[in-house]
Write a structure and sequence with these properties.
91 residues, 4-stranded antiparallel sheet, 3-stranded antiparallel sheet
Length: 91
């Protein structure tokens, strides 16, 4: 069985046993669609377990620049992420 779930602001296609890396603190908000060989299922339940609570993502660099004023500024940050494991999908 597979499902499309909404986690935070993004949507993922998942099946049982999948691991996802999502923004820190997010969980499965909504099950949008679930299906298997027999067809579509309404009111499906997806359970997920937090495997790793705080991960550090890749560094994101942000550059500011203003022309003709000798202004240049580069800052960076590493987002905090969580790893979720999809345990089961029940129709």
């Amino acid at each position: 069985m597979q499902a499309i779930v909404q986690i935070g602001k993004s949507q993922h296609i998942v099946k049982a046993g999948d691991e996802l890396v999502v923004d820190y603190g997010n969980k499965v908000d909504k099950v949008l669609l679930a299906w298997d060989d027999k067809g579509l299922h309404e009111n499906a339940k997806v359970t997920a377990k937090v495997m790793t609570d705080k991960l550090k993502g890749a560094k994101v660099r942000v550059a500011k620049f203003k022309a003709k004023s000798r202004y240049r500024k580069v800052i960076g940050f590493r987002p905090t992420l969580s790893r979720l494991k999809i345990e089961s999908i029940k129709a």
